[in-house]
Design brief:
alpha+beta; single chain; 10 strands; Arc Repressor Mutant, subunit A; Endonuclease, Chain A; 2 domains; 3-stranded antiparallel sheet; 242 residues
């Protein structure tokens, strides 16, 4: 386990074995370390030299012979911190290389009840105004218990909701319930689409509430989100109050 952990934090297999051998021997000749690790003499000097460069070993000369010693295990933390500092120093230049010249929309598909929950959790995570267009009112039938918890958390976070429900039996029923909740504004309009559209932050989510094909398509793109927000505002002005 110790060897695997040392490898996980950046040591090679040979370095990990040599360092563990040094910890046990405390002070040893290269030949003794070679014997314990089963590594050839020619390779063990290379490995020990690498450990010395990392600050994890040192040596002393006694009677013209070189004895190697391990650095305290706490040195591993210092070694990792040094690597972190190096990474932080080059992070700005790496981010410049990583940043795409043209930011392309990200499209993700979420299926089933758990997929819809993932989307709603993302609404809470964003913490911004939540716009809903063409809501059917069916969500309360499909995920009733989760939806109750969701709205409690939304209200706690003071996330404002503006929703345009379909002006039908399902939409009217759910609209009356939601209009009683804090931070919620409800309007109605003739059915626009068989799907529901969520708009928040830089995201647009199109949801099909049909039980046989319950899914959500999430598009993350600032320009697309902006255009949908403008579309929503135009409809909001003409939509009817209860």
């Amino acid at each position: 386990m110790d060897k695997e952990t040392l490898i996980a934090i950046g040591l090679t297999n040979r370095e990990a074995e040599a360092y563990l051998a040094l910890l046990q021997l405390q002070e040893a000749l290269a030949s003794e370390i070679s014997s314990k690790t089963k590594e050839s003499r020619s390779h063990i000097y290379e490995t020990l030299g690498s450990l010395i460069e990392k600050g994890l070993a040192s040596y002393v000369i006694k009677n013209n012979r070189k004895y190697f010693r391990p650095s305290p295990p706490e040195k591993l933390i210092e070694y990792l911190r040094e690597k972190e500092v190096l990474a932080q120093n080059i992070l700005p230049s790496l981010q410049v290389l990583y940043k795409p010249k043209i930011k392309k929309p990200i499209v993700e598909v979420y299926e089933g009840k758990e997929g819809i929950k993932t989307v709603l959790n993302d609404v809470l995570k964003a913490g911004k105004e939540w716009l809903c267009l063409g809501s059917t009112g069916k969500s309360s039938e499909i995920i009733p218990f989760y939806l109750e918890h969701f709205h409690k958390q939304r209200i706690k976070q003071k996330i404002h909701l503006r929703v345009i429900y379909n002006d039908d039996t399902f939409g009217r029923k759910r609209g009356v319930e939601i209009s009683k909740l804090p931070y919620s504004n409800v309007k109605y309009m003739q059915k626009l689409s068989p799907t529901t559209t969520y708009i928040y932050e830089e995201k647009v989510v199109i949801i099909s509430w049909e039980k046989e094909k319950l899914l959500a398509i999430m598009i993350t793109d600032n320009d697309i989100s902006k255009s949908y927000k403008e579309f929503f505002e135009a409809i909001w002005k003409t939509a009817r109050l209860g």
